[in-house]
Amino acid sequence: MPTLTTRIKEYRQRAGIKQEELGEMVGVRRETIFRLEKGLYNPSLKLAMDLAKVFETTVEELFFFEDEEK
Amino acid sequence: MLKKASYKQLILLQFLSGIVLICAKLLDYIVPYISGSPTYWAVNIFMFVAFFFYIFATTLFIVNVRSATKVLRDELTTENEAKAVEFTFLVIMLVAVVGMGYTMFSNIDLSLNNDLLFCIFIGICTLKNGAYLVYDRNGGSHADFDDED
C-alpha cells in the first residue's frame, strides 16, 4: 500500500521558518509539525490546505504518495 | 510558566499528582491497620500535601488552557485525547464486567466504601492522563527543542 509522504520540511527550511513558527502560522503545536514532517501523522484537509497556503503551493505538491513520486 | 508549559507537560503534572494522591489515600487507609498512631500524623500531612498538589495541578491546567498565548491544543491533541478516553472507557467496562461477573457467580457482596470510591474516581482521571501521554509520546523529547537540524 502506498505511503503518504510530505515535503513540508523541505519547504519550511527553504522558507527559513522554524517548526514552532510554522505551527503558530497554521494554528497547531510544534509537536504536530514535527510529526507531520516525520510522517507520523496525517493532517486534516484544512490543515493540509493551510500549510499549502503558507508555502504558496498546492496540497498535491506538499503531500504525495510514495509510488507517485517514483 | 504559563507561557512555556506545553499541553503534554500539564497532563504529565496532573498524572503525577493523581498518582501521588492515590498513594496518599491508600496509605491513609492502610496505616491504621499496620502501625500505631505516631506515624499517623505523617500520613495526614502527606494526604494534605497530595490533595493540594492535585488541586494545584488541575487549576494550573484549567488556567493555562484558557489563557495560553501560544497554540496549546490542536487536532492532534483532540485525536489523542479521544483515543485516551476510548481506552479508559474500555478499561472501566472490562473492570465493571469482571466485577459484576464475580459478584454474580460468588456469594461475595461487593460494596465500595468512600475511600475506595475516591481512589477509583481519581484513578480513572489518572488512567486517562496516562493513556494520553502514551499516545502523544511520538512527539517525543525531540519536539521539545526547536529544529534539531
Element layout with pairings:
The complex is a heterodimer of chains A (70) and B (149).
Chain A: E1 4-6, H1 8-15, H2 19-26, H3 30-38, H4 45-54, H5 59-62, E2 63-65, H6 66-69
Antiparallel strand pairs in A: 1-2
Chain B: H1 7-34, H2 40-67, H3 75-105, H4 114-135
Helix pairs in contact in B: 1-2, 1-4, 3-4
Q: Which percent bin holds the helix content of chain B?
A: over 70%
Helix share, percent of chain A: 55-70%
**Quantity of strands of chain A, as a count:** 2
Work out the radius of gyration of chain B: 19 Å
Radius of gyration of chain A: 11 Å
What characteristic shape of chain B results from the CA principal axes?
flat
**First-residue to last-residue Cα separation of chain B:** 27 Å
The counted number of beta strands of chain B is: 0
* SSE arrangement of chain B, N to C: HHHH
SSE pattern of chain A, N- to C-terminal: EHHHHHEH
N- and C-termini, Cα separation of chain A? 14 Å
Strand content of chain B: under 5%
* Uncertain stretches of 5 or more adjacent residues of chain B: 140-144
Treating each run of at least 4 consecutive H or I residues as one helix, how many helices of chain A? Answer: 6
In short:
By secondary structure, chain A is mainly alpha-helical. Chain A contains six helices and two strands.
Description:
The complex is a heterodimer of chains A (70) and B (149). Chain A has 70 residues and is mainly alpha-helical. In chain A, 61% of the residues lie in helices and 9% in strands. Chain A has a two-stranded antiparallel sheet. In chain A, helix 2 (19-26) crosses helix 3 (30-38). Chain A is globular and about 35 Å long. Chain A starts with a strand and ends with a helix. Chain B is mostly helical. The longest helix of chain B has 31 residues, at 75-105. Chain B is flat, with a radius of gyration of 19 Å. At the A-B interface, helix 2 and helix 3 of A face helix 3 of B.
List keywords for this structure.
heterodimer, A: 70 residues, mainly alpha, two-stranded antiparallel ribbon, 2 strands, 9% strand, globular, B: 149 residues, 4 helices, 73% helix, flat
